[in-house]
Amino acid sequence: MAEALVPRFDERGLLTAVAVHAATGQVLMVAHMNAEALERTLSTRQAHFWSRSRRRLWRKGETSGHGLAVQEVLIDCDQDAVLLKVTPSGPVCHTGAAGCFFRRIGPDGHLEPVSD
Amino acid sequence: MAEALVPRFDERGLLTAVAVHAATGQVLMVAHMNAEALERTLSTRQAHFWSRSRRRLWRKGETSGHGLAVQEVLIDCDQDAVLLKVTPSGPVCHTGAAGCFFRRIGPDGHLEPVSD
Questions:
Q1: Structural domains counted in chain B
Q2: What CATH number did the domain enclosing A22 receive?
Q3: Closest CB to B27 among A3, A83, A100
Q4: What is the ipTM of this complex?
Q5: pLDDT tens, B83-113?
Q6: Domain interval for residue B59
Q7: Minimal Cβ distance to A2: which of B72, B74, B112
């Protein structure tokens, strides 16, 4: 019998969502999903998130034009985090970078650019 | 001038932490870090997290023996999520799986095993 999807939303009603590039595996961004964002992501195959700062649902790319086409949605062992395998239609980060993790924490505690 | 590390902890005092395999890039697990967990991870180069359910700091592997040696810590654009590139010393998931994302959400909404 197939196991049921029973997401465990946190006290704010949110799951953690990690988007990785479907072709390269690069981690592109981390965001959050409420139940509606998860439902819309699964039904439309375009990534939707819950903005904690703006307190509203958003479709990634609705203003930038750079959406995330969702190839596959994985869920973790305790069903409180999802992993989206996506094909981005442009830079994912609002800074214009391909992904949001473009700096490392260096040995002296300052941030350093990473090349990949 | 190097940019400063100024983590943006959420209202619970937490960052999201994503651990990926340093060699393969596979997303292994998602967890949370408070300031102390981040500091200990950076100073010891072993992944430490904050357990929301147990409400305490833990070093990954302290009971299982399967720790995560941290090769690099990246931080995202708005400094509220970190990406750990790690070398695991054994299975990362408490189920015994290599990583926690071993099921996908299938077209009918049930969970299906993934092979990788």
A1: 1
A2: 3.10.20.810
A3: A83
A4: 0.96
A5: 999 999 999 999 999 999 999 999 999 999 9
A6: 15-113
A7: B112
